[in-house]
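Bit of a strange request maybe. I'm writing a small parser for C-alpha cell strings and I need a real example to test against, not something I typed by hand. Could someone generate the C-alpha cells for this chain?
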Amino acid sequence: MDRPALGDVLDAAVPFALPLRRRFRGVQVREGVLIKGPSGWGEFAPFDDYSDAAAARWLASALEASFGSWPEGVREEIEVNAILPEVSSTDAVALAREAVLERGCRTIKVKVGSPMLADDEARVASVRDVLDTVLGRGVGAIRIDANGAWSVGQARLALRRLGAYGLEYVEQPCRTEEELRELRSLVDVPFAVDETIRSAADPGRVRVRELADVAVLKAAPLGGARALLAIAEGLDVPVVVSGSLDSSVGLGSALAAAAALPDLPFACGLGTGALLAADLADPRIPDEGRLRVERPAPDLPALLAARDRLSEERVRWWRQRITAAWAVEG
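Reply from user aminoacidic:
Good idea to test on real output. This should exercise your parser:
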C-alpha cells in the first residue's frame, strides 16, 4: 500500500463521539476519527492514554482499511462472545439473559478485577447461573478478563474462587511476563494474554507459549488485519480476535482478520457493539451468536450527529493526534 499524504488523510478525517450504554474501560463516550479513502472507511480511535507510538499502529490500521486492502477471507461469519462490564450481579443477570436469549451468544466474557473479590464472584456466579439455566449445564462458556489488575497473590486467590464456576480461560490476570510465569505455575486455569502482546515494542517477538494458552489479538492496536495475521502466523497457540470498543465501521478490520485466519477454535471478542448507545451505521449486534463479515459505510446523519457531539477543542485534538501518530512512522 502506498502511504497517502498527511494532508489527504486530514481532509478525509471526520472525528466522532458515541455514547456507551454503560461505563466501560473508564469511559462513558467512545471517541475517534473515521477516515475516507478509495478503499472505504477506516477508523482511528486509540484511547487517550495511548502513546504516539501506540497510536501510530491504530493509524496504520485505519489507512489499511481506507487506502489499502484486507486479506481474503475463508469464512463469512464469525462466532462472537458477549461482554459484561464490571456491573452488579443483578445487572449481570439481565445483561447475560439479553446476550443469550436475544443475541444467541453461548460465550460470555466477564470483566473482573474489582476492588472487592466478592463483587467479581457475584458477577461470575450470576452469569454461570444464566448460562446453565438457559442453555443447559456445562454448555455455555465463561471467560474472565482482569486487564492485568491483579498481583500474583491476588490472582491466585481470585482464580481459586472464580475457577469453581468453570472458566474457559482468564485473560491477562497479571501485567508483567514474570508475574504470568509465576502465577501459571500456581493455578490450573488456562491463560490468555492481550496487553502483553499489543503493548510490546515488537508484538511478533513475544513468546506467548511460555506465558499463556491463548493469544488475544486486536487488529487496530496491532496495525491492521494483515499485521494481526502476520503475528498469528508466528504463534503456536490458538488465537482469539478481539475488538477495541470499535464503532460498527471500525469493527470491520477485526472481522476481516478473523475471517482470514485458517483456524478459529474460540468465539471472538467482537460483540462490543452491544455496549454502544449510538453507532455510525447499523449496529454490529450478534445474531445467533455470530456476526457477518462486511465492510459497512457510515450512515451520514449518524456520522454528522456523532461529529456534533464533540467540542471544537476535541476536534482539533483528534486532528493533532493523527499528525503526531503520522510523524512516528516518519
